[in-house]
């Protein structure tokens, strides 16, 4: 790490829903001549500002917001690779205008895809992805040529590919089961791409990752260690399976659990007053219209899985059921089926009175609150787990700053002193002097100190367990084939299970009987031949 002004700086604001991310992003963009990029998958959709909780226009303070409300809910959802491509294009355009890009959002795997530039390999076990995922990566990277066209060997039969892998990388060939064609293919592909065995690259990456983790933890505990070792310290671009794409400063806006639960409950009530139910009902009506046209909507992705619509759907079913049944009765007809595939809570013959409808509506709103609580805990787990691990791999945990907004969102003066001003000081230092001169992330607040101590302790414990498991796998993770049964196994544990199994024991007994019969035949033949020889002499 060197004390230098970042050439292509990026600010990222992350955190759970309801913590004040959007407000901080606007503050920083206002102070440092920036433009904001939305990193929330649901906020990509237009026409649903309340359900997706988009920042109101009046709160944007004239700051341009990109990738916000840019696709229709009837359009194909964006895959993470498409988002990454569009986001990187937008970052480039913002910089072209001489502005600072500020990425903000709660879909953290979208954010992480933009922040980190992955190396060619992962950890070996999870690196081999499906063909569809490979195509997604090629599109995202602007590369449209399949690897099988570059390397015709990859078009060969699986047994030919396996034999070739045995020649160039016997370690990986022995690691995978002969039927695991996907991983065998990927291992050979790596060799053809790099000219080096995948096993050798995995081993090198793990050494770098382990070294980076040790240095990173040491630097957080003793900043003087950083100053003494900057000349020999691994750079972020070389320390592991991923590194930051740009010089980046991350702000994790954090609110204590009890306060955040209260705040989110109040937010749902406010959203209901502002038109949440009407927005969700428009989605419900759209579904029914499409159903009537014979068009079925995939409700397992896109805006259909957003919090708000699916929880309110039973209420809309009840309204439609009551209205349809009343109309049918008025015309002297029977009940009318509801055009919906929704839950069995409401049947086509149900008619709820106004009080029951009101109670059902409140129950649905309570479900939204519960789903929102579950979602924010998922967001925090992602930050504490995957994002922290990626930062550790990239030797960049010192670039993550925890901002405590627990007492600040409803108090303007507290917001200024606890959120905006600390963040502005860090950004000022980052832009003018570089990461090395930024303050210790733990010194921003007591909450920041607690979070970092917890993360470091978890990293040490997880590292010890991971190291033991990794060492165990390295010594035993090798395929073996039983010469009696022809079964291939991938570990000592599987081997022990196999040899103790009834099938193997029966096969061994059968083999012993066959050998005994063969021995008897051979001995009998030898005896007859010997007797014949004696007669001849």
Automatic annotation (TrEMBL):
Enzyme kind, highest EC tier: transferase
Catalyzed reactions: adenosine(37) in tRNA + dimethylallyl diphosphate = N(6)-dimethylallyladenosine(37) in tRNA + diphosphate
Top-level taxon in the UniProt lineage: Eukaryota
GO cellular component assignments: mitochondrion
EC number: 2.5.1.75
Residue ranges, compositional bias (Basic and acidic residues): 509-537
GO process terms (BP): tRNA modification
Coiled-coil ranges (or none): none
Entry's Gene Ontology molecular function annotations: ATP binding; tRNA dimethylallyltransferase activity
Chain ranges of the C2H2-type domain: 482-504
Pfam family, one: zf-met
Record's keyword terms, sorted: ATP-binding, Nucleotide-binding, Transferase, tRNA processing
Chain residue ranges for the region called Disordered: 508-537
PANTHER family, per the entry: TRNA DIMETHYLALLYLTRANSFERASE
Family membership noted in the UniProt record: Belongs to the IPP transferase family.
HAMAP family (alphabetical): IPP_trans
Protein name stated in the entry: tRNA dimethylallyltransferase
Species this chain originates from: Ajellomyces capsulatus
